[in-house]
């Protein structure tokens, strides 16, 4: 029974690790990177020179043109075409 559970455990570990390798890049202190990657070139996103990160902010942001209760300019940023942040837009 113990042998069966050991064999099953080893099979599970080998299936989980399939297709994943440790990054072959080196850190600033000349130590191998510890990140795991699935890429063919065996480099993580930090070391891959061809990596392009997906931009979360699609479109240009501007500083809100509204004013606060103390008559100071609002410092929030917005992508809305009105130029007002969620606090100053009338369509809440």
**Arithmetic mean pLDDT:** 81
Distance between the termini: 64 Å
Main beta-sheet strand count, sense and barrel state: 2 strands, antiparallel
Could you tell me the radius of gyration in angstroms?
25 Å
Strand order of the largest sheet: 1-2
Strand content: 5-15%
**Structural classification:** alpha+beta
> What pattern of helices and strands is seen along the backbone?
HEEEE
> Are there runs of 5+ residues with pLDDT below 50, and where?
none
Strands, total number: 4
Helix residue percentage: 10-25%
Question: How many helical elements?
Answer: 1
Q: Which of globular, elongated, flat, extended, rod-shaped describes the shape?
A: elongated
Topology:
Blueprint: H1 2-16, E1 21-22, E2 36-37, E3 62-63, E4 77-78
Antiparallel strand pairs: 1-2, 3-4
Question: What would a concise description of this structure say?
Answer:
The protein is α+β, with helices and mostly antiparallel strands.
Q: What would you say this structure looks like, in words?
A:
- The protein is α+β, with helices and mostly antiparallel strands.
- Among the domains are: 20-48, no CATH class; 61-92, no CATH class.
- Helix content is 16%, strand content 9%.
- It is built from one helix and four strands.
- The protein has one helix spanning 2-16, and strands at 21-22, 36-37, 62-63, 77-78.
- The strands form two sheets. The chain has a two-stranded antiparallel ribbon with strand order 1-2. A two-stranded antiparallel ribbon has the order 3-4.
- The longest helix is centred in the N-terminal third of the chain and has 15 residues, at 2-16.
